[in-house]
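Hi V.,

You were right to ask for the full record rather than a summary. Here it is.
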Amino acid sequence: MYDRVADLPLVVEDYALTAGTLETSSDFTRVSTAIGLSGEGETGRGEDVGYDADDQRRFQDAYGDGGLDLVGEYTVASFSSRLDDLDLFPAPATREHDRHYRRWGLESAALDLTLRQADTDLASALGRSYDPVRFVVSTRLESATRLDDLRAVHPEAEFKLDPTDDWDDALVEAIADRGGVRVLDLKGQYEGTSVDGSVDPALYRRVLEAFPDAVIEDPAWTDATRPVLEPARDRIAWDAPITGLASVHERPFEPAWLNIKPSRFGTVESLLETIAYCETNDISMYGGGQFELGVGRGQIQALSSLFYSNGPNDIAPGGYNAADLPDELPTSPLGPPSAPTGYRW
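Predicted structure:
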């Protein structure tokens, strides 16, 4: 698939960085950076979704008025090579993932600009079509009340939930009674972050039994949890460790499911290579979000529409992340645009 876009011409004449912020339902202030590349009367947009707010502000302050030497004539592939030679961080990156996130913000903006300059869209360039795309709503719970609030806005809402050690039998039963849980994100692959998940085999057993049809994302695969997880291999998905094809091969067994978050891959080439591998090897995929505040959300919706439209895609419109839910929100499935352009919805 990458060969279909790699040699498309790209002209970059200028760029701009714009800050975005949102108070989220998870009690933190989300900061991201919108990246705009312009040339030949068109603007391509991407979004750096790194989670370190201070790092985002340093990026905006240091490079917002220039400083990145991006002007030139390229192809998609040669622009990516140009980024190899640039230091995208005015101060050292907080985490290695941040390098992928910033790289993806620039590569997605370049892809969008390339397609717009060619007067086409990503689906057409890849010989695919945009299909209506299902989504789930992702949230952390201390009670089942949040699910009721979401259902008040979207009665048929389905969910991706993050079990924690506080999920006792009563809470698990209350959640299960409400139905619609498609994915349980155990976050057992995170270390040293504010969202590190449980590694408790008892919790794993509790939720596997209570939600027998749910995909189980990112469990900790340890000597203690393996006996609980082994019977559920066919519904285990990986997310945080997946940064390219090599990382797929590093899983403890051939995956049945992958959560595809484009920003984790860094480059268009790595993303499309991994998706192609999944299609060839019957690995089920679904889309994942990173609290995108701008164009990044539409871009992950577009990708999900192209490749895994019926999956439990964690790509709900951004309003679902707000602490106070709007009275009206789009419902699942999302219809594709009637006249798509570039890499955007």
